[in-house]
Amino acid sequence: MTSICSLSHTAPRAASMDQENNSEDDSVGPSGDGMPCLPPDLSDGEAMELLWQLRAQRRQSSPELPETVSCLTAPDGSILYLVGTAHFSDSSKKDVATTIRAVQPDVVVVELCQYRVSMLKMDENTLLKEAKDINLDKVQQAIKQNGLMSGLMQILLLKVSAHITEQLGMAPGGEFREAFKEAGRVPFCKFHLGDRPIPVTFKRAIAALSLWQKARLAWGLCFLSDPISKEDVEKCKQKDLLEQTMSEMIGEFPALHKTIVAERDIYLTHTLRQATRCVESPPNAQKVPAVVVGVVGMGHVPGIERNWDKQLNINEIMSVAPPSRVGWVLCAVIKGVMMGMLGYACYRAGGSLGRALLSLPPVRSLLETLRPLPA
């Protein structure tokens, strides 16, 4: 679980929790806008105690929360408020803000991993442009990060997201940015990234499909064009829009649904349970039950609720099997074709122009991508 701390004096405890969870700590602090101003003559201990008391006063004991929020309890009495959202929804953003303001949590956990954390700091207009613009650089980055087949599949899934973005004129992940902003306004609140790393998900998803299934899925993703209205998004409060769109397309591929949804349900449950632990109160370092807000797509809520009280082993959903011989041959053929096309282009361009072409950064980056891995 990756931790993003909202207050500098809470960082040591966040780091120790992350060490216990055997995960890395990428710290990016929220702005903290809306935090109360404290008298300048207070000591650190007095300031921490005052902030703790202020948060306790703000925290509602019996909050009236949106119907998209469910409540789960840990064995130590800690409480998880799980907000089910639609990733393209203004209403979901309001649900998240309402919940965080009402319960003043110790921890906020969102359905993101370190590979998608950049969306927290980008404004809506930039994200809208980025989501619509799938260029060669993004293709190269995806292939470098995930391998050829998984990288291409990631680009196709980005195309699905871009299709919804273009239809609605709305950037994805607004509820996560809202959670990040609101967490920065709560004293002592930490911000955790709770999703499985996306390269693992894509590699396991691709490995679960046969070559024919991969081709059929890619075809469906390439020709997605159904119109989507904002009313459709709000109807998807019962099931997240992006996941519903994917489910309709991959319904005939149970193994793919298992890796993209069911396995991530298990991983999200694990990270949410890790966050829902007792915390130390500043006045006397006494352990008290934690209050946690989890922000996940509505499609994950039933799975998290089912898994909450189960014994979980996430090691088995984190491993990636080596590619099959057929997959290796296919990748080699695709790489060979692309190298041949590039070589022919250089030949047609002539010696000096060909060398100039090969010296271009995008072409050199592509060659690095296509270079075979050492045996």
TrEMBL record:
The lineage of its organism: Eukaryota, Metazoa, Chordata, Craniata, Vertebrata. This is TraB domain containing. Residues 1-40 are annotated as: Disordered. It comes from Oreochromis aureus. InterPro entries: TraB/PrgY/GumN_fam, TraB_PrgY-like.
